[in-house]
Design goal:
The complex is a heterotrimer. By secondary structure, chain A is α/β, with parallel strands linked by helices. In chain A, strand 7, helix 5 (167-182) and strand 8 (186-191) form a beta-alpha-beta unit. Chain A has eight helices and ten strands. In chain A, 35% of the residues lie in helices and 25% in strands. Chain A has a six-stranded mixed β-sheet, with helices on both faces. Chain A has a four-stranded antiparallel β-sheet with strand order 2-1-4-5, with helices on one face. Chain A has helices spanning 48-56, 93-103, 108-121, 137-150, 167-182, 194-200, 218-223, 228-234, and strands at residues 10-19, 22-32, 38-41, 63-68, 71-72, 79-82, 155-159, 186-191, 203-208, 211-217. Chain B has ten helices and no strands. In chain B, helix 2 packs parallel to helix 5 (94-130), helix 3 (53-63) runs antiparallel to helix 5 and helix 5 (94-130) packs across helix 6 (135-145). The radius of gyration of chain B is 20 Å and the shape is globular. The termini of chain B are far apart. By secondary structure, chain C is α/β, with parallel strands linked by helices. In chain C, strands 1, 2, 3, 4, 5, 6, 7, 8, 9 and 12 form a ten-stranded mixed β-sheet that branches. In chain C, strands 10-11 form a two-stranded antiparallel ribbon. In chain C, strand 10 (262-263) and strand 11 form a beta hairpin. In chain C, helix 11 packs across helix 12 (252-259). Chain C is globular and about 55 Å long. The chains are: A alpha/beta, B mainly alpha, C alpha/beta. Chains in contact: A-B, B-C. Chain B binds chain C through residues 25, 28-29, 32, 80-83, 86-87, 89-95, 98, 173-176, 178-179, 188, 190-195, and chain C through 12, 15, 18-19, 22-23, 26, 31, 36, 39-40, 44-45, 48, 58, 60-63, 74-77, 179-182, 184-185, 188, 203-207, 234, 236.
C-alpha cells in the first residue's frame, strides 16, 4: 500500500524560519532517519512545535530547504501529526477515525475493522458511537492518536502528547507509541518531559532559542551531555 | 377577526391548501437552490485568500439588503419573452418565482455561512492540513461539521423567501391556482378590501413559519446533542 | 451519519422531480393579461371554470392596470390581452402588437366618496360638474396614477370638466400609483373621493364611510375589449388556444356567462360583443 518512494530521511538544510520579523528557528543541518523515536526537547518557546510543523510540511522555511527522501515539497500523504491540542471533528469517535482513513483512501470494506483495532490500541474499545467532542481531554488525546495512526504514516509527529495527561495516562500513551515504533513507524516527538524522552527515544535533539545545541543518541545525551545547556536542562535549570 | 381564514383552513378549502402548498414548494426549493450555491460560496470566502476577496465579502453582505422588488424586476426582464432568456417561456410560472427567491436569498445564506465557517476554520485549519485535505474536501468537512449552525442560515433564507411578496408577484403574476402564494394572496385580498381574510391569511402564514422554525430548532438541538456539539 | 446523508440526497432528488413534474403537468394553458377590475370583481373566477369545463384549456390571468397589461402583451409575455381603454387598444393593434380588437362587454364607472360629502355632490348625475366641485371645495380625491384604464378614464373626465389636472392639482389631489383596490382602501381610510369601476366597487369589502356619489352619466361608460397578441411578432403565442378563448368570450354562450355574473343580485358586466362600434 505504501508508495515506493520513502519520506525518510527527513532533512533540514540551512533552514531559517521567521514569523513577522522574528527568527523562530535557525537550523544549520538536521537529519532524521529511520529507527527508534527521536525526541525533540527544550524549554518552552524554544521552537519545538515549529520544527515539527516544518517537518510535517505545514510550514515552509523562510530560507533553506526541508527534504523528504531527498525531495522537496512532498505533500503529507505518508506523514501524520498529533497536535498538542487536537481538534475533534463534530462526529462520533468512529467517524473521526473513518475520516482519517478516507483521507488516505483506505478501502471502505476494511475500515470498520481498522477502526475497532485502532480504538482498541488506544484503549477506547466500545467508544465507537460516542460523540468525539464529549470525550474527556485524555480520551480526546488518545482518540487523536488513533486518528493520526489511521493514516498509516511513515513518520508520525507528536507535539507534547503527554503534556496534559496524568502520569498513568501518559504511561499508557507511551506504551502505545512504543508499540507503534516497533511496527516501523518513525516517531518524532517533542516533549519537555525528560522522563518520556528517556523511556522512549533512540536519539535526542535539544533546541534552545531556535538553535539546535545537541543531537545525540539517547544514552550519550543523558549520561555524558556534550554541552553546558544540556547539563543545565537536565538539571531543570534551563527554563528560558 | 381571523375567523374567515381559519374557517377555510379547518374546512379544508382546497384553494387555500394549494396556496399554502405552493408557498412552501417555492420557498423551500428556492432555499435548497440558494443553499447549494450559497453554502459552498460562503465556505470558499471563509477559507480562500484571493485578490478582491474583501470586496466580494462586502458585496455579498450588501446584497443581503437587496429589495425583493428589484430582484423581481431583474428576473422579470431576463425571463420576459422579449428578454435574453425569454425563449424558455418560464415567466409567470412557479419556476420563475423559485429563481427570483433563490437569487434574493443566496447572499443571505452565503454571508451567514461565511461567518460560521470562518469561525470553524480557525479551529480546523491545522488538523485538515495535517490530513492533507484540499480545498474542496475542507469545504465539505466544514459544511458538514457546521451543519447545525448553518441550519440557522438556511432558516434565515427561508424566512425571507416565504415572507417576501415584491419579487414573486412580479415574476409569478399572482395567477389563481397556479402562481398564487400566501403573500400574493394577502396582497390580493388587501386590494379587494377583504382585510379580515388578508390578516387571517397572514396569521396562517405566521403559524406555518413558526412550525417550520420549531421543527428546525428541534432538529438542531437533538442533532447537536447527539454529535456532542453543544 | 451515512443514513442521514443518503436521506438528504433522496430529499434533493424528490424535490427536483417534483419541480420537473410541476411544469410538465400544465401545458394546455394560456396567459391572459387583464385588469384588476376583472380579477378583483371576481368575474374571471366565474368565467374560467365554465370555459375550462368546455375546452379543457387552463386560463392563467395576470391582473394589471390596462397600460401594464398592454405592455405585457407588447413584450410577448401573454397570449391574450383583455382590457378597458379603447383608444389604447386600437393603438396596440395598429402598432402590430395585437391581431384584432373585439368588443366584449361594458360596465360603468362610479364616483364614490364619503357619506359626509364635503363637495356636496352626492346623488348628482353630471360627472364633470361633480369633479369641478371637488376641486373648488378642495375635497380629497384619490387618483390611481398608474396608467390603468380607470386612470386614463379619470384624466379624460377632468379634461371634459375643463380642468387641466396636471397643472391644477393641489394638496387635495393624491396620486397613489397603485391598483383599484389600493385606491379604494386609501379612499376609505382618508374619506376621499375616488373613481372606480362598478364591479370592483360591488365586490369591495372595506368600504368604511364610502358611498356612491355620482353614477349614471353617459360619460362614465366603460368598454372592455379583447385582443390576441400577434403571433407573427411573438411566434410562441399559443394562437389556437388563445383564439378559442376569445371566440368563446364573444360567443352567445360566453356572453350569457358574463351577464350571469352577479353580486347580491346585481349584474356587474353587460355583454355587447355584437354591438357595432363598441
Amino acid at each position: 500500500m505504501r508508495a515506493p518512494d520513502s519520506d525518510l530521511p527527513l532533512r533540514f538544510e540551512r533552514v531559517r524560519f521567521e514569523a513577522g520579523n522574528r527568527l523562530i528557528l535557525d537550523i544549520e543541518s538536521l537529519s532524521i532517519t529511520n529507527g527508534a523515536p527521536t525526541a525533540v526537547v527544550g524549554p518552552n518557546g524554544a521552537g519545538k512545535t515549529t520544527l515539527l510543523r516544518l517537518g510535517m510540511g505545514l510550514f515552509e522555511p523562510t530560507v533553506g530547504r526541508v527534504t523528504w527522501g531527498g525531495r522537496e515539497k512532498v505533500p503529507p500523504t505518508r506523514r501524520a501529526i498529533l497536535f498538542q491540542r487536537p481538534v475533534m471533528l463534530m462526529r462520533s469517535a468512529a467517524n473521526n477515525i473513518d475520516y482519517a482513513l478516507a483521507s488516505v483512501n483506505a478501502p471502505s470494506r476494511d475500515r470498520r475493522r481498522k477502526i475497532a483495532e485502532l480504538l482498541a490500541l488506544v484503549g477506547l474499545s466500545g467508544f465507537e458511537d460516542r460523540p468525539a467532542r464529549r470525550l474527556s481531554g485524555g480520551e480526546q488525546q488518545r482518540l487523536a492518536l488513533a486518528r493520526s495512526l489511521a493514516r498509516d504514516p511513515e513518520i508520525l509527529f507528536l507535539d507534547e502528547p503527554t503534556a496534559s495527561l496524568d502520569p498513568a495516562a501518559a504511561k499508557s500513551v507511551e506504551d502505545v507509541l512504543r508499540a507503534v515504533a516497533e511496527r516501523g513507524v518513525k516517531i518524532l516527538i517533542s516533549t519537555h518531559d525528560l522522563g518520556t524522552a528517556r523511556r522512549l527515544a533512540g536519539d535526542v535533539v535539544l533546541i534552545h532559542r531556535g538553535k539546535i545545541l545537541e543531537h545525540s543518541v539517547s544514552e550519550v545525551f543523558f549520561k555524558e551531555p556534550r554541552t553546558e545547556e544540556a547539563r543545565r536542562f537536565q538539571a531543570s535549570d534551563l527554563l528560558i | 377577526m381571523f375567523s374567515s381564514a381559519f374557517e377555510l383552513l379547518i374546512t379544508g378549502d382546497p384553494g387555500l391548501y394549494r396556496i399554502i402548498g405552493l408557498s412552501l414548494y417555492v420557498s423551500l426549493t428556492a432555499t435548497l437552490i440558494a443553499a447549494l450555491v450559497g453554502l459552498p460560496l460562503g465556505a470558499l470566502l471563509a477559507l480562500k485568500e484571493f485578490p478582491g476577496r474583501g470586496a466580494v465579502i462586502v458585496i455579498v453582505n450588501a446584497l443581503m439588503g437587496m429589495p425583493p422588488v428589484v430582484v423581481g424586476l431583474a428576473v422579470f426582464l431576463l425571463l420576459s419573452r422579449s428578454g435574453p432568456l425569454g425563449s424558455f417561456g418560464i415567466l409567470f410560472t412557479p419556476r420563475a418565482m423559485i429563481i427570483a427567491q433563490a437569487i434574493l436569498i443566496t447572499p443571505i445564506i452565503a454571508a451567514l455561512a461565511r461567518q460560521t465557517i470562518a469561525d470553524l476554520w480557525v479551529q480546523y485549519r491545522d488538523e485538515l492540513a495535517g490530513m492533507n485535505i484540499g480545498t474542496a474536501g475542507s469545504v465539505a468537512t466544514l459544511l458538514w461539521d457546521g451543519r447545525f449552525s448553518l441550519l440557522t442560515a438556511l432558516l434565515a433564507g427561508f424566512g425571507r423567501a416565504s415572507a417576501e411578496v415584491g419579487a414573486v408577484i412580479i415574476v409569478g403574476g399572482n395567477i389563481d391556482g397556479f402562481t398564487r402564494t400566501m403573500t400574493t394572496a394577502i396582497a390580493l385580498e388587501t386590494s379587494k378590501g377583504d382585510l379580515p381574510l388578508a390578516i387571517g391569511l397572514g396569521a396562517v402564514l405566521l403559524i406555518i413559519v413558526i412550525a417550520i422554525n420549531a421543527i428546525a430548532w428541534t432538529v438542531r438541538r437533538t442533532g447537536e446533542r447527539l454529535a456532542g456539539a453543544a | 451519519m451515512f443514513k442521514l446523508k443518503s436521506a438528504i440526497v433522496m430529499g434533493f432528488a424528490a424535490l427536483a422531480l417534483a419541480a420537473a413534474q410541476n411544469v410538465a403537468a400544465q401545458d394546455k394553458s394560456i396567459v391572459v393579461a387583464s385588469t384588476t377590475s376583472t380579477v378583483d370583481s371576481g368575474l374571471f373566477s366565474h368565467l374560467l371554470p365554465l370555459f375550462k369545463a368546455k375546452t379543457g384549456i387552463e386560463v392563467r390571468v395576470i391582473s394589471q392596470g390596462t397600460g401594464q397589461a398592454l405592455d405585457t402583451g407588447r413584450r410577448g409575455d401573454a397570449d391574450v390581452v383583455f382590457v378597458h381603454a379603447k383608444s389604447q387598444e386600437e393603438k396596440f393593434v395598429a402598432d402590430g402588437f395585437g391581431v384584432k380588437r373585439s368588443p366584449v362587454m361594458y360596465n360603468d364607472f362610479v364616483l364614490v366618496g364619503p357619506k359626509g360629502d364635503p363637495a356636496k355632490i352626492n346623488g348628482t348625475k353630471d360627472i364633470a360638474a361633480a369633479l369641478a366641485k371637488i376641486k373648488s371645495a378642495g375635497a380629497t380625491f384619490i387618483s390611481r396614477g398608474d396608467k390603468s384604464g380607470t386612470h386614463s378614464a379619470e384624466l379624460n373626465l377632468w379634461k371634459i370638466a375643463g380642468i387641466d389636472i396636471a397643472a391644477d392639482k393641489g394638496q387635495w389631489y393624491r396620486d397613489i400609483g397603485q391598483g383599484m383596490g389600493a385606491a379604494l382602501n386609501a379612499a376609505s381610510a382618508s374619506n376621499a373621493y375616488v373613481l372606480t369601476d362598478r364591479g370592483t366597487w360591488l365586490s369591495f369589502k372595506n368600504r368604511g364611510e364610502l358611498v356612491i356619489s355620482v353614477e349614471g352619466d353617459k360619460r362614465l361608460f366603460n368598454q372592455y375589449g379583447v385582443m390576441l397578441v400577434n403571433p407573427t411578432k411573438h411566434p410562441h403565442v399559443k394562437k389556437d388556444l388563445a383564439q378559442s378563448f376569445i371566440d368563446w368570450l364573444v360567443s352567445t354562450e360566453g356572453q350569457k356567462a358574463i351577464s350571469g355574473y352577479k353580486i347580491n343580485g346585481e349584474q356587474l358586466f353587460f355583454p355587447n360583443a355584437t354591438v357595432p362600434g363598441a
